[in-house]
Amino acid sequence: MKRLLVIGLCAVLMACGAESNISHEYQCYFVFDTTLHPLPCQLTSVLGNPGLFVKVESNMVQGVRHLKTTPNYDAAPEDIMLRNEREKTRCDLGANNCIIVGVSSFNGLVAYDGQCANCLVEKGGTNYPLTWQNNGTQLHCAKCGRSYDVNNGVVASGTSGRSLLMYAVAFDGSILRVYN
């Protein structure tokens, strides 16, 4: 009986540990149907390709949601209109309406908040956007000067500090979900 209790407790602790790196500081809920936006759509193209990432921002134009995506490989923005009824869902993109989604060379599919995690805490507010740097291998904050490694989210240069805020991410082959 004790052995079963210990095994059960270990399973619970391991499950909690897996979720402990997911940020709940800012609401994130994003669903994207790649079947409605096939290649050459930038967001669809990064999925399944290690080292490729894309910034995703959202805005409403005349009642239609638009996604602005900016990839790490050429920084050429793309406008994606979400017109289908299935796409008219809630869209919360973290601290200031921006997330980073891609495939880490180390950890597979990942999603980060698009704002500097350290400035969010140190300076308050939510307007600390990250920009692509070093051929898209890093994200840079102009406010504090830190750069983050896009493959693991840790500070790569500048003052040490927090890693990028991470969100849970899943892709079933057609539907991408980013959430917390």
Write a brief caption for the model.
The protein is an alpha+beta fold.
Summarize the structure in words:
The protein is of the alpha+beta class. Helix content is 16%, strand content 38%. It is built from three helices and 13 strands. The N and C termini lie far apart (35 Å). The strands form two sheets. The protein has a nine-stranded antiparallel sheet. Strands 8-9-10-11 form a four-stranded antiparallel sheet, with no helix packed on it. A hairpin with a 3-residue loop joins strand 12 (166-171) and strand 13. The protein has helices spanning 2-19, 42-46, 117-122, and strands spanning 28-33, 53-61, 64-71, 78-82, 92-93, 98-104, 108-113, 130-133, 138-141, 147-149, 155-157, 166-171, 175-179. Mean pLDDT is 90; it is low at 1-18.
Strand element count: 13
Contiguous helical run count: 3
Order of helices and strands: HEHEEEEEEHEEEEEE
Please tell me how large the radius of gyration is: 17 Å
Ends apart, CA distance between termini:
35 Å
Derived structural class:
alpha+beta
Q: Main β-sheet, in a few words?
A: 9 strands, antiparallel
Strand order of the largest sheet: 4-3-2-6-7-12-13-1-5
What is the beta-strand fraction? 35-45%
Pick out the low-confidence regions: 1-18
Mean pLDDT: 90
Task: Label the overall shape.
Answer: globular
Assign a percent range to the helix content: 10-25%
